[in-house]
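Bumping with the actual sequence this time:
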Amino acid sequence: MSKEAVLFTLYVIALGLEVLGFHWTLKDIHAAREKLLQYFHRDRYVYPSGAGAAVEAFGVTADTSGPKTLTERVEALEHWRKSVPEELDRRDRKMTAHLETRLSGDLEATRRSVETQFRQVNEYLEGGLQSATVSYRGPITLLLGVIFGFCASLAGLTS
């Protein structure tokens, strides 16, 4: 095999590797763009909170057992008026406990949702959605083509 044939073969191999490396690099860039678009348009999971709504009506009682005198009505009203602060305190404690439960459930659900989204962003940015061989095959092939071309040029210069 003549020296010119060897040089030509090295140049053809270099050209082929450079074209293949360039093609793979463009293909990987396009695939990364598509994966990014898929990531932005994916469904996001939001964790529901475990608390439900509580509704309670004011406990007004009406006694209609029969006609009452004005004195009996005033006494019943006074008795009801004395029980109002205690009833309001009881309802306040009950609603406070319910709201604390509800808010802690909502905060936990929000924390889990944000944590899931943060983990997905990390996976995407760290390249967890593609292998390292796919990411670097184009540039490595391109580099091999340049090395073969350099070797062919050196071989041409030394002759």
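The tokens above came from a reply further down the thread. The radius of gyration is 39 Å.
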